[in-house]
Amino acid sequence: MSPRRNRPKGARREQEPERALVPEIVTAAPPGWEARAIPATGAAKRYRCPGCDQEIRPGVAHVVAWKRGEEGERRHWHAPCWERERRRMPRA
Ligand SMILES: [Zn+2]
Fold this sequence. Notes:
Elements: E1 25-26, E2 33-38, E3 47-48, E4 55-56, E5 62-67, E6 75-77, H1 79-88
Antiparallel strand pairs: 1-2, 2-5, 3-4, 5-6
Bound molecules: zinc ion.
């Protein structure tokens, strides 16, 4: 008898369908905003960070954020720049 065969039904991690090559990691965002953490492996392009006006190079983990309903206006931020901006934004 192998205990591994009797997994509880709750253990469904391995069976989750693949959604995208890069998993979406929801990160903290002010009300009305959406933000995702982009891991280094998912960062393939150069972006300009609106927080410091410096380049985000390929292979650098960062954050993409947009106002809810304005997904076409996604901006890519350095993670620390986003943190700073996020804290500056109103909470309500
Ligand atoms: Zn920046």
